[in-house]
């Protein structure tokens, strides 16, 4: 038996990807083990996952489990964009900044990034790149991609997404939603998943699981089968089809069949709110100076301006990432397993690194 190589009591604030797997997810994987099941998705767990997903997204929803988020995004976009097509997206979007060019290099499509102050697109911003239809000299726009919650930790309301969908569809564009943290968005909005996806006019979703307690695994959820084509073939071609797919599907079932997806996300959001409130209280009391916040804290991410020297001091105990080093902005993320004690210890470390008023 392999011994643990790390201290399991230590938690950081760098990413919700740092968290381990939820015990209920591990139990689901163990329950799916033993005996034989057909490979490549022709198994009872993947069939059941389709039923579970349709409860959340509606009867037309089709689900295609994949290994990871980049794979889900590339696959989703390929299914709605032809080889010569382009995707309009926020400049800060994960597909534009953190996927090593995979949408363009692997997906064979062009990204048209739009600068935004908060990671959110609007019909007016989309319109700045929605042109050149029929012009063979320009990659033709065929889709819009938004992220919920955004890379800045901000949220779209259902009305905002519906407005984007209406505009996109009026221009002949499909609407993709990168839902790496879709559960955190639903928990913060206190809405069912379909309220800001299916009901708002989204065509295809990259559904995130790894950041919310899965070992590995995400899913492409096609909401509008008339717009997404060839997903089965594209998944195989993109090396995203697991032979033992039942183990991905079993994890997603564990997440979505009950309320685990919501419990984990709501807890992560609450821990971020606790962190923000604790630091703001210290700022108000004059116990710390030099710290400010760049965005509202709506889900499980906090974006703060922290002097570089203080950041390095805090990093002696807790890992976290720079967001914009030129502005001394950092990002702090909480997860489903972040505890109140973790948050309070982090607050204390930040307070110790900053001077009082």
Distance between the termini: 53 Å
Question: Would you tell me the structural class of the helices and strands?
Answer: alpha/beta
Helix content: 25-40%
Strand content: 15-25%
Instruction: Quickly count the helices.
Output: 13
Q: How is the main sheet built? A: 7 strands, mixed
> What's the overall average pLDDT, rounded?
97
> What is the overall shape?
globular
* Total E-strand runs: 11
What is the radius of gyration computed over CA atoms, rounded to a whole number of angstroms? 21 Å
| Main sheet: strand order | 1-7-6-5-4-2-3
Description:
The protein is of the alpha/beta class and 357 residues long. 38% of the residues lie in helices and 15% in strands. It has a 7-stranded mixed sheet, sandwiched between helices. Helix 12 packs across helix 13. The protein is globular.
Descriptive key words:
seven-stranded mixed β-sheet, alpha/beta, 13 helices, 357 residues, 11 strands, 38% helix, four-stranded antiparallel β-sheet, single chain, 15% strand
Break the fold down into its secondary structure elements and pairings.
Layout: H1 23-32, H2 44-57, E1 62-66, H3 69-80, E2 85-90, H4 94-97, H5 102-105, E3 110-114, H6 123-127, E4 140-147, H7 158-170, E5 174-179, H8 182-189, E6 204-207, E7 218-222, H9 231-237, H10 246-256, H11 260-284, E8 292-293, E9 301-305, H12 308-314, E10 321-324, E11 329-333, H13 340-353
Parallel strand pairs: 2-3, 2-4, 4-5, 5-6
Antiparallel strand pairs: 1-7, 6-7, 8-9, 9-11, 10-11
């Amino acid at each position: 038996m392999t011994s643990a190589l790390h201290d399991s009591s230590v938690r950081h604030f760098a990413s919700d990807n740092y968290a381990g797997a939820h015990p209920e997810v591990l139990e689901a994987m163990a329950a799916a083990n033993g005996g034989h099941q057909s490979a490549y998705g022709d198994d009872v767990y993947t069939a059941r996952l389709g039923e579970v997903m349709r409860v959340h997204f509606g009867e037309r929803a089709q689900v295609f489990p994949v290994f990871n988020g980049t794979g889900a995004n590339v696959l989703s976009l390929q299914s709605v964009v032809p080889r010569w097509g382009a995707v309009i997206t926020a400049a800060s979007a994960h597909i534009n900044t953190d996927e090593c060019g995979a949408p363009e290099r692997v997906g064979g499509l062009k990204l048209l990034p739009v600068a935004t102050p908060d990671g959110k697109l609007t019909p007016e911003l989309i319109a700045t790149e929605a042109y050149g239809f029929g012009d063979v000299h320009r990659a033709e726009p065929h889709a819009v991609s938004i992220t919920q919650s955004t890379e800045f930790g901000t949220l779209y309301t259902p009305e905002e997404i519906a407005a984007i969908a209406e505009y996109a569809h009026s221009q002949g564009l499909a609407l993709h939603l990168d839902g790496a943290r879709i559960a955190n968005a639903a928990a913060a909005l206190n809405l069912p998943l379909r309220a800001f996806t299916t009901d708002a006019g989204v065509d295809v979703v990259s559904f995130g699981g790894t950041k919310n307690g899965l070992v590995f695994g995400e899913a492409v959820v096609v909401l509008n089968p008339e717009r997404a084509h060839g997903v089965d073939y594209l998944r195989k071609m993109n090396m995203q089809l697991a032979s033992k797919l039942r183990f991905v599907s079993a994890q997603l079932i564990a997440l979505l069949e009950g309320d685990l997806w919501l419990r984990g996300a709501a807890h992560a959001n609450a821990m971020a709110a606790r962190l923000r409130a604790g630091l703001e209280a210290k700022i108000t009391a004059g116990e710390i100076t030099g710290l400010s916040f760049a965005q509202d804290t709506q889900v499980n991410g906090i974006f703060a301006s922290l002097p570089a020297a203080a950041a390095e001091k805090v990093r002696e105990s807790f890992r976290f990432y720079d967001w914009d080093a030129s502005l001394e902005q950092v990002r702090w993320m909480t997860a489903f397993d972040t505890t109140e004690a973790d948050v309070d210890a982090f607050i204390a470390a930040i307070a110790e690194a900053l001077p009082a008023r």
